[in-house]
Amino acid sequence: MPTIDEEIKEIEEEIRKTQYNKATEHHIGRLKAKLAKLKELKETAKKSSGTLPGVKKTGNAMVSLVGFPSVGKSTLFNELTNANSEVGDYDFTTINVIPGIMEYKGAKIQILDLPGLIEGAAKGRGRGKEVLSIVRNSDLIMVVTDVSNPDPEPLIRMLHEAGVRLNKRRPRLFLVKKDRGGLNIQKTVSIDIDDDLIESILREFRIVNADLIIRDKIDIDDLIDFLSGNKVYIPGIFILNKIDEQKDFKNEFKVLNEKYGFIPISAKEKINLDMLKEGIYDALDFITIYLQPPNKEKETMVIKRYSTVEMVCRAIHKDFVKNFRYAIVNGPSARYPNQRVGLDHVLEENDTISIYIRKN
């Protein structure tokens, strides 16, 4: 009986050899679904050997520096934060995860200096699985390359293998499992996958009675990602370091830049670091609100867009949620002046909020 690894290899080879067209679409779709299930089984069965230090999120957001060894991540990290990371001109300089804080426009952004990734990282080489497990919890990924090896595609593939969908929005798919009634597929948009293929993929995941509602344009891979349930969707920015070593880098990297929109920098020479900080801030999609404590002066607070009153309470103090009574909101998110709201109220830019808690 073949092992899981052997089955995975066999299916991957069959997918690689099968030419994609309308006639083979169903076959490839089923193979991809089987492959996803096998990989899921493998991850469940396999226990991680060795772990990196746990990282506790602090500040308004957590950002991971991802790149190959020796692209200058540690130098960049030291320039952006108040922490110090060991720097050297050789591979695997960064031994552990080093967190630091970058303060910008009122936001406190936690940046992680991580060990450099190598080919096969998603399969565990070079402690890659442990590194990528930390990256999966990020609010933003900074993909760092340099002028000697500028193409970020290998890093994007590693992230993809680790279940990270970079710069993609989670599709609006809804699955309601039932005891009987078979499969019912509802679509509010036109997609290029027919119902027979969707049903085949559902059955590969042992789903035979369910309502599936599709509200976004998707492909086969999007559907399999959704059914696997272990994918994360994280924004990313692309940074091209060491531009001081390439005089004509704009022309040299024109095609890559059109595809990825690099922020060109030199961490060593401190070139374009303000541009990078602005890019990080914008990518995190922050908004500014105002806290109005009773009988006190108004305070400015930076939060992520779509944050709720509960998220603000947690950021102020861990007991604010437990002792919460209500909040008063004025501004764009309020339907009328001095609206009284609960923890699930979503705040908007320039809102003013007063939070009332029970006294112990």
What report would you give on this structure?
With 360 residues, the chain is α/β, with parallel strands linked by helices. The chain folds into 3 domains: 104 residues, no CATH class; 156 residues, Rossmann fold; 72 residues, Ubiquitin-like (UB roll) (Roll). A hairpin with a 7-residue loop joins strand 12 and strand 13. Helix 2 packs parallel to helix 6. The longest helix is centred in the first third of the chain and has 21 residues. The chain is globular.
Topology of helices and strands:
Layout: H1 4-17, H2 25-45, E1 61-67, H3 73-80, E2 98-104, E3 107-113, H4 128-135, E4 140-146, H5 153-161, E5 164-166, E6 173-177, E7 183-187, H6 195-204, E8 210-214, H7 220-228, E9 232-234, E10 236-241, H8 249-252, H9 254-260, E11 263-264, H10 273-283, E12 286-291, E13 299-304, H11 309-316, H12 319-322, E14 324-330, E15 339-341, E16 352-357
